[in-house]
Amino acid sequence: MNRVTIKDIARESGYSKTTVSFAFNDPSRIGKDTRAKILRIAEELGYVPDPVARNLSLRRQGTIGLLLPEVISFAFFNPYLSQIIQGIGAVCEREGHSLTLIPPIRESLLEGIRGAAVDGLITIGLEPGTETVEFIKRRHLPFVTIDGRVGGDFPVVGIDDRRAAALVMRYVLDLGHREIAIISLGSESRDDGPTHVESQRLAGYRDALRDHGAPRDRDRTPADQPRIYYACASMAGGRDACDQIVQDGLPTAIVAMSDVLALGAMERLEIAGVTIPGEITVVGFDDIRESRLVRPQLTTISQPGFEKGRHAAEALMRLIADEDTERHIVLDAELVIRDSAAPPRVIAATGGGR
Amino acid sequence: MNRVTIKDIARESGYSKTTVSFAFNDPSRIGKDTRAKILRIAEELGYVPDPVARNLSLRRQGTIGLLLPEVISFAFFNPYLSQIIQGIGAVCEREGHSLTLIPPIRESLLEGIRGAAVDGLITIGLEPGTETVEFIKRRHLPFVTIDGRVGGDFPVVGIDDRRAAALVMRYVLDLGHREIAIISLGSESRDDGPTHVESQRLAGYRDALRDHGAPRDRDRTPADQPRIYYACASMAGGRDACDQIVQDGLPTAIVAMSDVLALGAMERLEIAGVTIPGEITVVGFDDIRESRLVRPQLTTISQPGFEKGRHAAEALMRLIADEDTERHIVLDAELVIRDSAAPPRVIAATGGGR
DNA sequence: TTGTACGCGTTATCAG
DNA sequence: CTGATAACGCGTACAA
Description:
- Two copies of one chain form a homodimer.
- The first copy, chain A, is an alpha/beta fold.
- Chain A has three domains: about 5-60, lambda repressor-like DNA-binding domains (434 Repressor (Amino-terminal Domain)); about 65-160 and about 305-330, Rossmann fold, CATH 3.40.50.2300; about 160-305, Rossmann fold (3-Layer(aba) Sandwich), CATH 3.40.50.2300.
- In chain A, about 45% of the residues lie in helices and about 15% in strands.
- A six-stranded parallel β-sheet of chain A has the order 2-1-3-4-5-11. Chain A has a four-stranded parallel β-sheet with strand order 7-6-8-9, sandwiched between helices.
């Protein structure tokens, strides 16, 4: 018993393909009896329209694609992405769409895009003018990017990373910290350079340091300059970076560019027997769910991952429907003060006398 | 400038559609010069084959579907599912496939299946003989289920839930606990009854209680019988269930059927100022990543979520390739002893004298 | 109310 | 060896 097609129903019922199709998709256009007869035969033969042929005909797939910069098994280590997916998912469901996760195929993003049978794409951290953008355009696919650089003719959803980074660094400085280590996303020497988000956050950290008058402090030794460590976006990355920090000598505060990094560092510090925030302050960026679960709870920047996903998906749906949409959607981010940051011990001890 | 099709290239180059297609897909079948000319024109016009038409023709979609029992935005609250997706993703990447998340469309699983343009489906907790199974079969889609009931003619990937549940309950009993509250997944009165996994775990808990001679203990009051609370699979569900437990009077141990439930309960207990494991023992089931992050670290059953996803995807790939595969894949689960369980205080106080 | 023909890329089959 | 024709699957504009 092989696949049953619309042709079989047509032959069996004596009507044409068109009539059979109308029986399912536009009942008003055929007679009631005709329809009943066709439906009966279709049921008997177990006919189900082939969605692929149907999609080809309708020129809509009923699915949108999320282009993953990394392999799925790796990408999901970052819970921030889960939040984004949830936001996208909320819109998909409402619109009756499914969500296709597109990893690099044979290590190539372009291959993934080439074969994507989707109505549109959501991408992460896409930079205008890149080969990737050009290829998506060539495929005439509507697309939106999250955490990307503004400037292309496609919508970008994000926060003001620079301002948010300055916010958390200023908080640490206000607590009195001067010996600070930064754990940054990415690596110092990378083919494609830092992403927009990475450089914005770094710039924000520097804004805060500058505003605090650090450069004018003539007495500072080179050791006082914030040291920057690079790590890939995972707890393991944070752990490794913290290893290096421990080797180089502990600062009074660690400012991590993402929560997973901070969590990895905290794990490493706990093993070393260093108390947080007593002996060292740790702050993050993202506010993933785990950050409220660890003890001490992590002070961090709350990023609206869910909202980013939601807005991106909504903008994409508008593009798919050929409607206009904003080119730049900026969402709010705020400092969430919890328990992992405190004044440095030295200040607390000597600063009491003023 | 509209979409460029293979026909445009054929017209522009003077060759037929066939020849153009061969230029891309089977260069050996046409002349070198012919191919060069076609490729040049295709490049000029910015031609990209339409993946949808291509997939229709090839009868393969290059994507597998994950049928979600719940809306995406809800399903992702359970990190256990993220682990499964990671496992599936690892196989997808290796095989050059993407992964389509299919939520219920218009609240209907069947609608989601009807429109799924995929090579095969992975489902969760599917029961043989249900309408869902019948519909997937009608579509002639190969499929596999994770955490489902064995008995249909499709592969099932899971663990021995009953044995694993008995393991953790026995551990709690061995610590000396007799006043136990169980937080179960699902609800007491539900249309479709408990899932296979739910009833297996409950059965496992009861096995352990029985083996421990509880039923023969004539002195036990009704209050000593384990009380069962039902909750939906989220931290909020665990919190709410724990609210009820607090109201009803605290037992010495809470056995939760999943880690998210346990985590929710722990959060509630922390607010109430009840110390874990000093005043109460809490254990879970799943071993999601967060369970190692909370303090105290959660004692639980380690479920190989990633491995489940991986095995399910591998079995599905075999089915898609028309190869044979095992009908039942049982993976290992083990008790992970951490810090959230300890002997009950009364025992610790009085038991010293023996 | 119903049928014909077309769109989309691939490939078995046929013609030169 | 090189290249063309036709069929696959569905929906629908258009014709009858």
